[in-house]
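pipeline stage [seq->struct] | target=DNA-binding response regulator | organism=Methylogaea oryzae | residues=224
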Amino acid sequence: MKPTIRVLLVDDHVAVRAGYRLLLAQSPDIEVVGEADCGEEACSQYWDRKPDVIVMDLTLPGIGGLASIRRICCQDPRARLLVFSMHDEMVYIARALEAGAKGYVTKSCAPDTLLQAIYKIASGGTYVEPHIAQRMVAQAITRSGNSPLDSLSPREFDVFCLLARGLTAHEVAERMRLSYKTVSNYSTSIKSKLDIHTGAEMARIAYQHGLVDDAATFGPPASP
């Protein structure tokens, strides 16, 4: 008899977590032992529940998905964490894997893919959705130099993505459960690191990295 794989679900939407539960319930070898709706709760639940695999979204309130991955993996290098996200942009994938995630699949994948990823990671392996793995190889071959976004901390990266999509500092603060002053400080630091001055410039950089669909949505681009 196979040992049961204990899974912790981390997503800020109750309905989404309920869907995960239904999917994972199809496997007699998987048991959902806990749920969390933010980064802080995910870190707490990890130590309380001792799951074999954490299935985590990246877009979370609180400290956010990337910072949560880094915190858990720094505290326990043996942690097995699978990102299950709507984001398929390479910058998200690279940051998640660099933070310590053992796998990455998108929410558009087939249900069997998620189950396959959980089994692989629980057994000590790694799993990246095949089409993402192909893009990673292609990018490794063609990429030269570092991205300016590499200088941003996980928290700064989260703030950058939201601001670049047109959210105000107040809206970002509400979504991330931070104070307006904290978000303003992050914004100042981000602009300094990227050597930019406006939201339009943020949007343009985000567009260049595939993080937004249309930089023009947020105003005219800055002069070259």
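stage status: PASS
auto-comment: The first helix runs from residue 14 to 24. The chain has two domains: 5-141, 148-218.
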